[in-house]
Amino acid sequence: MSHTWMILGMAAVTVFIKAAIFVLGGRVAFPPLLQQALGFVPVTVLTAIVVPMVLAPHGQGLELSWRNPQLVASVVAVLVCAVTRRQLLTIGVALLVFFGWQFGVLQG
Amino acid sequence: MSQPTRFSSFAAGARDTIPMIVGAAPFGMIFGTLVGAGPLAAWQGQLMSMTVFAGSSQFIAAGLVAGHAGVLVIWLTTFIVNLRHALYAATLLPHVAHLPARWRWTLGFLMTDETFAVMNGYYSRQPDSPHGHWYFLGSGLSMYINWQIWTLVGLLFGAVFPQLQSLGLDYAMAATFIAIVVPQLSRLPQLGAALAAGLFAYLLKDLPYKLGLMSAVLVGVSVGLALLRGQASRTREGQAA
Q1: Cα-based distances in Å from A108 to A94, A101, A103, A104, B208
Q2: Rounded to whole angstroms, how far apart are CA atoms A64 and B233?
Q3: CB contact under 8 A, A14 and B111
Q4: Handedness of CA B20, A50, A30, B97 (dihedral sign)
């Protein structure tokens, strides 16, 4: 139940953001600094979610080791994506390495 | 060329959005599968796609719910992550300001990164088209229906293969985020912002209510802005010299 309210709250926030300016007209203005700041939001939020997941996948300490499949797959993903810039290829290779490392290398 | 009608404008908007539709499909499916691997019920995942309809904030919310974040943190993150849509709306406002309110609500709700890109191109080619809002509706509605279908496919996929959960499927989210972030890091301010955000997110990860995430984003954005300022002032000095 609380998850449903969480989702409906997200919807209310998002619909307000998307429609407010169309509905209220030009009465809302964005200072240039806020516009620049918003440009950094997607990159910083996504990175801030990923880094702890990859460096400490069990929520404990740092796991800087070749035995950490999240870390190995993510290093490969960053390299593949930086070279090819292809998103789906990156995701596919990352998942292959992740599962391959988990079930092939570490248990093999 | 014949005069465009309402329907032909609607169809042209949907047609010109097809590349975006193809691109969004796998992300809809990954979102649905992730919901199946997390604490949300399947119907709640579909509800989120139907009412929120903003991909990156849906991914982030699914990740935050799985990490037991508080509801206020999720709403605040949603607000910050989706605020860019207000910039899109401000850009397109001159072309929709004359429409009735029900049209402005509908088109606002259907705004996404993809439809903004399509509409921005369309209005720069045809600033005075009388049926521009039908084109907008065609683009937005086709993205919306596509997102619902692929969310459902992902939810069904996760339900048919429940053992995927124990395989560490949540790593798919990390892989997806990496694929979104890395292509944006070719400019120094973006790279610095991401590195700072990642470092502080790790250092502060044990703070309650995901406050570490919020702080890391603030630090990252500040670093990005500072680097942007530095670049701008160097450019000015270069021009003065």
Answers
A1: 19, 9, 7, 5, 38
A2: 38
A3: no
A4: positive
Number of Cβ within 10 Å of residue A3's Cβ equals 18
Residue B207 lies in a domain: no
Asked if the structure places residue B233 within a domain, the reply is no
Residue B58 lies in a domain: yes
Q: Residue-wise over B45-83: b if at least 16 C-beta within 10 A, else e?
A: bbbbbeebbbbbbbbbbbbbbbbebebebbbbbbebbbb
Test B175 with A9 for CB contact under 8 angstroms.
no
CB atoms near residue B157 (< 10 Å):
15
Q: How many domains does chain B have?
A: 1
Answer yes or no: is B66 within a domain.
yes
Question: Closest by alpha carbon to B210, among B70, B58, B40?
Answer: B70
**Are A73 and B171 a contacting pair, CB within 8 Å?**
yes
Whole-structure pTM value: 0.75
- Token couple for B196: 């700072």
Which tokens hold the place of B122?
């369309």
Q: How far apart are CA B203 and CA B198, in angstroms?
A: 9
Task: Write out the two tokens for B22.
Answer: 């193809």
A48 touches chain B (CB under 8 A): yes
Distance in angstroms (rounded) separating the CA atoms of residues B89 and B113: 11
Query: What tens digit of pLDDT does each residue of A33-89 get?
Result: 887 888 888 788 889 988 998 999 887 889 999 999 999 999 999 999 999 998 889
Structural domain span for residue B109: 6-70+99-172
Most B-contacting residue of A5, A28, A51 (CB-CB within 10 A), to test interface: A51
Question: Is ipTM over 0.90?
Answer: no
- Please compute, for residue B240, the number of CA atoms within 13 A of its CA located in the half-sphere on the CB side: 6
